[in-house]
Amino acid sequence: MGKEAVARAFLDIESALAVLDAEVGAAAGAGSDGSLEADPLRAVGDLCLDVLAGSRRVEANVAGLKARAAVTYADTVQAVEAPDAPVQAQEMAVRAEVACALTIGDRAAGALLSQAHMLTTVLPLTFSALQAGTISWQHARVMADEAATLDPAGAAAMEAHFLDPGALDPARGCPAGEMPASRFRHKARTWRERHHTESIEQRHAKGVLDRRVEYAPDQDGMAWLSAYLPADQAAAIWNRTTAIARGLQGPDEDRTLTQLRADVVATALLSSGNTGHGGEGLGTDDSPDGTAGVDPTGYGAGRVPSPRAQVLVTVPVFSLLGATDEPAMLDGYGPIPTSMARDLVANGADSFYRVLVDPRDGAPLEIGRTSYRLTKAMRQWLRLRDGKCPFPGCSNNSLDNEADHLLAWAKGGTTGVSNLGQPCPKHHRLRHSSAWEPTPATQDEPPGWMSPSGRPYKSEHQDWEPPHWPADLQPRGHPDFLHLGLSLGEDGLDSFLHALA
After folding, report:
1. Where are the beta strands (DSSP E) in 283-344?
2. Are 229 and 211 in contact (CB under 8 A)?
3. Is residue 301 pLDDT above 60, yes or no?
4. Looking at the chain, which terminus has fewer C-beta neighbours within 10 angstroms, N or C?
5. What digits encode the pLDDT tens for the residues 338-389?
6. Is 335 strand, coil or helix?
7. Residues 379, 312: Cα–Cα separation, whole Å
8. Average pLDDT, the chain
9. CA 229, 231, 236, 237 torsion: positive or negative?
């Protein structure tokens, strides 16, 4: 027991790691000299993938151990200190000790202690999943960060949604621990925005007060310039910049789309910009996208066409009518205040598609569009259904995503949304230039991908939720029949929906 048992346990761990390392080395050598049976190189690959998957679990186990040890150490110090000892000095001493033991900075040690305390006291399901190796430390940090501003009931509901398969409304599609932590952060943030006890309108009003632009020097004569803005403004700037950059691409243009975006922004902000009103930079004229007169190349190209930046705004119908304050969804971002969505729907007809959802189950109800073509409608439906490229871990949600048959047309596949995906160009090429294959959904499994090694990986699903009903408009009887009060009659609702079509 005690320190000797700990020392022996770590020696055992180090011995086990040495065995694994030797296995990888031996497999590599055997594969290269052909001494393994059957397919030697495939056997080496399978062994290495097994080691990688096992390493992921062990790293999570170790992270859970570190979190528990850090919290227990802090509690022990607090217990032995005198009752009148200064709390701030005690916390500083604990942070310093943890930082030295792990050879990390004081700020990192403070963050570790805070997150570990959150996990061990407020988020038991998350901590158990971390100890079991089903989620990583990065996933656990996401949960702790997003739950930090929720009350205990909200935090419990959030981790139950993602980690308890028996929850009232469990997360759909790929489990939390099987998607990258960056994608899990997006899903956890979306859930938090929808279920926070304080309305998103109030929180957005506070956030607007913190808007700012930041500048940070970097290496090699470069620097970072970032802006903290309301989501609709940031999304509009990004999509408009992308649209202009995409329009400048061509056979004689050697700059990448990423480089063109940077040049468009720099030129728009720095040039005097011959706009119709003598303004400066991007977005100061009356064109749909504020780009008339802007020279995005910086080389005197003159006026450029005004591209249309297309964004999906998913609005619960009762929020659009003003009957509830439920958040809307901005494509590529997440939940936004209802007031912002109403403004986009009312004033963004040239740049935004209006998407209404059924008040019964959250299913898409109507997509506003300026022209009606089957292929365009199907593409918009795919964007709405998937939200992004369906390849595991990919977050590309641009208009460049390409419709693709899951079951090839030559093999009997149909051209319908149930047999279509929308991979980004990179993963579309991967599908057709390698043995990676998309797999359709079944009754028991969500859609996903099969790797060349024969291992299945699940695609991410959007977490659609039924919209909130106003208190005086609760459905009664059969769900296809609505019994509403005098303020929102069925005929009025039907007329409103058809007017937006």
Report:
1. 311-316, 328-330, 334-336
2. yes
3. no
4. N
5. 888 777 766 654 444 555 555 555 544 444 433 323 356 666 667 767 777 8
6. strand
7. 12
8. 77
9. positive
